[in-house]
């Protein structure tokens, strides 16, 4: 398969030296790219800034902002069989980007933020039989919220990571959550490693692709 995978945390610039982002390390997306490569798939990895090294034999595209990631995904999507949207995309960006460094002159600073583009929602309009996989990070009502996101964004399945009581899951070696598909199936996982989760995700992608290929062959 031709797999398009996104990773990392997008950055939305406030001034030349400051930005809005999140704590994602990008490790899950890079692990997916590595496991997919080992399975002999052709992989394009679109990554926001991380401290990681891109896997060998993977086409690597570096981006910074959400808009840049959207543009890169749009360029590559037509040649892909599957998009796994693993990147932790910033939901908001500053309304205005200041051209010079903001000086520490006032005791308070009021920021006006606006929404960034919803990459999956836009890409799903061009789905045309491709497999779309999304990720979600939730605390309360994680199954209900993820199901709503699955339907709203036209996904084949979604991987939801649960926020544990200890705090942010970013950077943790073990993950907790579930995989939900549009048929209503739920596969829960608890305290597994990211390589294990990557294997499960790709197993599901490959099985779905095989079923579609078989159906298309039978329809001819």
Structure in words:
With 220 residues, the protein is an alpha/beta fold. The protein has one domain: CoaB-like (Rossmann fold). The protein is 30% helix and 29% strand. The chain contains 5 helices and 12 strands. An 8-stranded mixed sheet has the order 5-4-1-6-9-10-11-12, with helices on both faces. A hairpin with a 4-residue loop joins strand 11 and strand 12. Helix 1 crosses helix 5. The radius of gyration is 18 Å and the shape is globular. The two termini are 21 Å apart.
Report the major sheet: 8 strands, mixed
**Which overall shape is indicated by the principal axes computed on the Cα atoms?**
globular
Q: Report the radius of gyration as a whole number of Å.
A: 18 Å
What is the architecture at the second tier of CATH?
Answer: 3-Layer(aba) Sandwich
Report the top-level CATH class.
Answer: Alpha Beta
Structural class: alpha/beta
CATH topology: Rossmann fold
Would you identify the CATH H-level superfamily? CoaB-like
Domain count: 1
Oligomeric description of these chains: single chain
Global mean pLDDT: 92
Distance between the termini: 21 Å
**Low-pLDDT segments:** none
The beta-strand count equals 12
Tally of individual helices:
5
Across the major sheet, the strand order is: 5-4-1-6-9-10-11-12
How is this fold's topology laid out?
Layout: E1 2-7, E2 12-15, E3 18-20, H1 27-38, E4 42-47, E5 59-62, H2 66-77, E6 82-85, E7 92-94, E8 113-115, H3 119-123, E9 131-138, H4 142-152, E10 157-162, E11 174-181, E12 186-193, H5 194-219
Parallel strand pairs: 1-4, 1-6, 4-5, 6-9, 9-10
Antiparallel strand pairs: 2-3, 7-8, 10-11, 11-12
């Amino acid at each position: 398969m031709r797999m398009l995978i996104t990773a990392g945390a997008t950055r939305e610039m406030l001034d030349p030296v400051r930005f809005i982002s999140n704590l994602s390390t990008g490790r899950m997306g890079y692990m997916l790219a590595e496991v997919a490569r080992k399975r002999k798939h052709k992989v394009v990895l679109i990554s926001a800034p991380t401290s990681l090294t891109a896997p060998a034999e993977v086409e690597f595209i570096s981006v910074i902002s959400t808009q840049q990631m959207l543009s890169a995904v749009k360029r590559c999507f037509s040649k892909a069989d599957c998009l796994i949207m693993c990147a932790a995309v910033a939901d908001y960006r500053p309304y205005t980007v200041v051209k010079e460094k903001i000086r520490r002159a006032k005791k308070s600073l009021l920021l006006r933020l606006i929404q960034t583009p919803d990459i999956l929602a836009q890409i799903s309009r061009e789905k045309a039989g491709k497999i779309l996989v999304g990720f979600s990070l939730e605390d309360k009502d994680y199954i209900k919220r993820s199901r709503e996101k699955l339907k709203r964004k036209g996904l084949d399945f979604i991987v939801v990571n649960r926020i544990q009581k200890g705090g942010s899951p970013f950077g943790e070696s073990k993950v907790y959550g579930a995989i939900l598909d549009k048929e209503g199936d739920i596969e829960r996982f608890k305290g597994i490693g990211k390589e294990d989760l990557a294997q499960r995700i790709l197993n599901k992608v490959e099985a779905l692709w095989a079923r579609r290929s078989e159906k298309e062959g039978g329809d001819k």
